[in-house]
Amino acid sequence: MHTRESVARSAQPKNNAAQLIDAFRTAVAPNWTPLEKLLPPHQVRRRGPRRQRSTSLGCEDFMFMGTVVGVFLYKNRDTRAYLNLDAAGNAYRFNPDTSNYDPIPVAQALQEVQR
């Protein structure tokens, strides 16, 4: 049998889930500045089918995925590869052996994200 108290308790989010989700959204608000400094948005661009890749990259080719220890993670929409940049525009590659982000040349990072 349900009591009024148990119904009221079950209607509330467990562990304040709504508050946690709001805090998470605020904590990982997209930061496009490092990417915009590296790849300015294209002024006019016509896109073909997703199978065709453009020869040039623009900000619109990426999704913001989050941030880890000061490194902003951007995923390429076509290749699904990550471009990892810090606030100064330095590039990083995730090393699964050490679970760290190792610095790499920006040109190399751009090349890898287009494969």
What is the H/E order?
HHHEEEEEH
Task: Give the total of domains.
Answer: 1
Q: Radius of gyration over alpha carbons?
A: 20 Å
Number of helices: 4
Could you name the ranges where pLDDT drops below 50 across 5 or more consecutive residues? Answer: 6-10
Number of strands: 5
Mean pLDDT: 78
Largest sheet: 5 strands, antiparallel
Shape, principal axes of CA atoms: globular
SS-based structural class? alpha+beta
Helix content: 25-40%
What strand order characterises the main sheet?
1-2-3-4-5
- Tell me what portion of residues adopts beta-strand conformation: 15-25%
Through-space gap between termini: 60 Å
Key phrases:
115 residues, alpha+beta, five-stranded antiparallel sheet, 5 strands, globular
Describe this structure in words.
This protein is of the alpha+beta class and 115 residues long. It has one domain (30-113). The protein is 29% helix and 23% strand. The chain contains four helices and five strands. It has a five-stranded antiparallel β-sheet, covered by helices on one side. A hairpin with a 5-residue loop joins strand 2 (71-76) and strand 3. The longest helix is centred in the first third of the chain and has 11 residues, at 17-27. The termini are far apart. Mean pLDDT is 78; it is low at 6-10.
